[in-house]
Amino acid sequence: QLSCLLKMVTLHGIPKDLDSYPKDLLLFLSPSDYAATGSCSQFFINVGKANVDVLPREAPRRQQLLLEALACLKIPGTQINEENSEILGRLVCDLGGEYIRSSGGRLLKDLSQCGSFLPDQEEAIRDVISSGNTTFGPPAAWSAFTLSELSGLIPVLDHSILQQIPK
Q1: Do 87 and 102 fall into the same domain?
Q2: pLDDT (tens digit per residue) in 11-70
Q3: Which of 96, 100, 118, 157 is a Cys-bridge partner for 161, taking CB atoms 3.0 to 4.6 Å apart?
């Protein structure tokens, strides 16, 4: 439905008020198509607010969006800073374990909003949390507030991490 709606909206070119349309619509648009109305980083700020789960995780379009976002933001290697993490929004849910590990705890809060994880992502999240080198500190120092901030990651935590968290 969204794909069809996009075809109707862009029938006579990209509308200047595209930002006022539902963000989910942008999942079916290319950043180069959007270029007439804004920068690629603005495009990915809007895509990051969309419900990426509209596209299945393995969908080529969803994988292409992540690759285009990484290229647009000129991210060298696998380290994502906080500013780029914010721009990527829900696209961080598709970053591989290597990105999660090398970005340290910077992605944890964004990752906690993801619905599910692949095994290599889960392992990377556990590694980062176990290291204790995050803004949240080691699990032994966590509070109820920390747990609410990271609530989406609780299912990923294993017994060795859970037992460190104070009652």
Answers
A1: no
A2: 666 666 666 677 777 777 777 666 666 678 888 888 888 888 888 888 888 898 899 899
A3: 157
Q: Give the domain extent around 35.
A: 1-94
* Global confidence as pTM: 0.80
Give the tokens for residue 82: 């906080």
First vs last C-alpha separation in the chain: 47
Q: Tell how far CA 22 is from the center of its chain.
A: 18
Q: Name residue 81's amino acid.
A: N
Q: Is 104 found in the same domain as 90?
A: no
Q: Are residues 5 and 81 in the same domain?
A: yes
CA 167/CA 159 separation, integer angstroms: 14
